[in-house]
Amino acid sequence: KAVQTITFADLPTCTYGGAALTLTATSSSGIPVTYESSDYNVATPSGNIITLGNAGQCYITASVAGNGNYLTGTPVQKLLTVSKANQTITFDAIPDKTYGDAAFSLSASANTSLPVTFSSSIPAKLIISGTTATIAGAGTYTVTATQAGTGNYNSATTTRTFTINKATLTATADNKTRVYGDANPAFTVSYSGFVNADTKYELAAQPTASTTATATSNVGDYSVTLSAITDANYSLVYRNGTMSITQAPLMVTAQAASKIYGDANPTFALNYSGFKNNETSAVLTSLPGASTVAKTMSNVGTYDITASGGSAANYILNFTNGQLTINKATLKVYAADASRVYGESNPIFGLIITGYKGSDDISVVSTFPTASCSAIATSPVGTYNITYSGATADNYQFDYATTVGKLTVTKAALMVTADSQSKEYGNANPTLTYSYSGFKNSETASALTTLPTITSTALIASNVGLYDITVNGGSATNYLLSYTGAKLTISKAPLIISAKNDSINKGATIPTFTLVYSGFKGSDNATKLDVLPSVSCAATSSSAIGKYDIVLQGGSDKNYTYTLNNGVLTIKDNTGIYNVNDYNTKLYPVPATDKIFIQSDITISKAEIYSVNGQLMQIKAGHDLKSLDVSGLIKGCYTIRLFSDDKEVITRMIMKK
After folding, report:
1. Residue 107: which residues within 8 A CB-CB, separation 6 or more?
2. 306 has which bridge partners?
């Protein structure tokens, strides 16, 4: 079989929506060629006619079948491109607007009927939402209508430019009024024509109001003008205001004045309140004056001072009356000096009056002055003013202070007498006292500045006898002190002399007896006594067992009175078994087992236990023994000797079981 070939020219670029394409491929054998598309969405072959679909690319394959003489031909592919179609937008012109106009609609359409969107060249000033445009500021704006395109159509845009003109805003300076001489008030501006709920705070700047008038400008009307400003959204129209300067109130006050009864009227003065700009009465066109109905001899009282008249260009004058006060003339009252003793009544005082005006005399005094003095019977020594008060007169006052008299109060006599005292030898001196005679006004020693000092020549160790008591040294504001002394009597002190009890064994030598003293004063002892008492006892070394008096007699001393107490000498059995006095001493229980208890009128300080053959078995010492432990002794009889602090010995027999 013969080989056949296909001739297939390149395909032209087509556009979406264009006319069908006729294919012209041929085979070398003349056998008809058939066609296939790789994407029927883009191109659909029918015979040799290609119907265009969506934009895009696909391959068109040309094929030829074989027959009895030819082999099947080799297919040939060609690229077919279907381009997107262009679209057009119809966009109506936008008329110019004015800032503050209502939102408006945008109208545009695409020839493809696809939806159109809108955008603003200044989105913050021309706000577009859908097809509605809202004005937010004046200016020139471009609105773009856009169709974004599809798979088969290219995008398209169309623009429209228009102007949003500024709104007209009228700024008016507000009228103001102020008083001459005051600072200008704060100027304000009123506005007419704001749109979109704008206020003056939305303006790029606010116009400033001003005037040529100053604090010193005269009364009249002055223009208030506004400075020009530029604003993005408003064209401003300016209207001036007026500031009116009115007369300032000027208060003219008749200055208060005074004079003394009987004197000529003073020159009256005027006070001004309200001058501006440091001005004075020199700016007044004419000066006001002042007058009163009071005369030289007008009675004491108040009289109007009337201010009137005067004028000024920049001031309106108002008047306030003053008062002329006619004060009382002064009459001087002279008081005479006087004197008295402290505690007595005041004497009668005298006076002289001077200072009458004109032909006046004492007949003008309505109430005659009364003398007084602050001193009373209890007033201390010194000088006191004698003053007058209580005088009255219609046109006079009374001067008492400059003519004060003096009352001199002198000291009263006061006698201080020391009281007689006594004490016992060796004791401290008693409290020395004194009494007063001559106090005034029921006063006591508390009225003295310094209390008198009372002393005595006697000391603690001074011997029995009489000693001077002297008083002096006191002082008092209101008293002149004199003094009388007294005597301190020292009597003997009691002294108890006792013979000390003693004891000896039978046959022993009589001891030297000891005297015990009670009542010595200070460092005194027996060596200081003038004569000691004698000591005697009837007992001898051969006297029988028993008690014998130690007798004290006689003796004397210049500072002591003796009280003598005898003692007792006890003669005891020298075996130690016999006791003259057992001092109610008991030992129990008898017989004893472990302990023996001691009961006695004297204090036992030592105990000794002996066996029947005289051997010392136990000894115990201590203060105020009350018991003995005999648990260690064997059964039998024992002798117990008890000793006191005074070496008294008590002997007892006990049984130990």
Report:
1. 91, 92, 131
2. 291
Partnered with residue 547 across adjacent β-strands are: 570
Q: Is 254 left (phi over 0), alpha (psi -120 to 50) or beta?
A: beta
The CA-based diameter of the chain, rounded to the nearest angstrom, is: 207
Kindly state the DSSP code that residue 557 receives in the 8-state scheme: -
Do 172 and 239 meet the contact criterion of CB atoms below 8 Å apart?
yes
Q: Are 422 and 489 in contact (CB under 8 A)?
A: yes
Is the distance from CB of 54 to CB of 39 less than 8 angstroms?
no
Neighbours of 504 (CB within 10 A): 17
Query: What gap in Å lies between CA 134 and CA 145, rounded to an integer?
Result: 16
For the entire predicted model, the pTM comes to 0.43
In the beta sheet, which residues pair with residue 534? 553
Closest CA to 324 of 273, 269, 271, 287: 269
**Are the C-beta atoms of 319 and 308 separated by less than 8 Å?**
yes
Please tell me the distance from the alpha carbon of residue 579 to that of residue 257, in angstroms, as a whole number. 127
Backbone angles phi, psi at 402, to 5 degrees: -80, -10
Please give the Cα distance from 173 to 483 (Å, whole number): 107
Q: How many residues are recorded in the chain? A: 657
Residue 164: burial class (beta carbons within 10 Å; 0-12, 13-18, 19+): buried
Q: Cα-flanking dihedrals φ and ψ of residue 603, to 5°?
A: -85, 120
Q: Which amino acid is at 519?
A: G
Buried/exposed code over 22-37 (b: 16+ C-beta within 10 A; e: otherwise): ebebbbebebebebeb
As a whole number of Å, the end-to-end CA separation of the chain is 175
CB 495 within 8 A of CB 521: no
- 463 Cβ contact partners less than 8 Å away, ≥ 6 residues apart: 425, 490, 558, 559
Q: How does 330-362 read in b/e, with b if 16+ C-beta sit within 10 Å? A: bbebbbeebebebbeebeebebebeebbeebee
Please choose, from the candidates 562, 378, 368, the residue with its C-alpha nearest in 3D space to the C-alpha of residue 478. Answer: 378
Locate 114 and state its tokens. Answer: 């696809």
For 445, phi and psi rounded to 5 degrees? -60, -20
| pLDDT computed for residue 653 by the predictor | 80
Task: Indicate whether 575 pLDDT > 60.
Answer: no
- Residue 385 CB burial class (10 angstroms; 0-12, 13-18, ≥19): middle
Residues 276-327 have pLDDT tens digits of: 999 999 999 999 999 999 999 999 999 999 999 999 999 999 999 999 999 9
CA–CA separation, 203 and 198 (whole Å): 8
* b (16+ CB within 10 A) / e for 434-463: bebeebbeebeeebbeeebebebebeeebe
Whole-angstrom distance, CA of residue 80 vs CA of residue 14: 8
What tens digit of pLDDT does each residue of 155-191 get? 999 999 999 999 999 999 999 999 999 999 999 999 9
Sequential DSSP letters for 174-197: PPEEEETTSPPPPP-EEEE---TT
Q: Which of 533, 530, 528 is nearest to 554 (CA)?
A: 533
The two tokens of residue 467 are: 């000693």
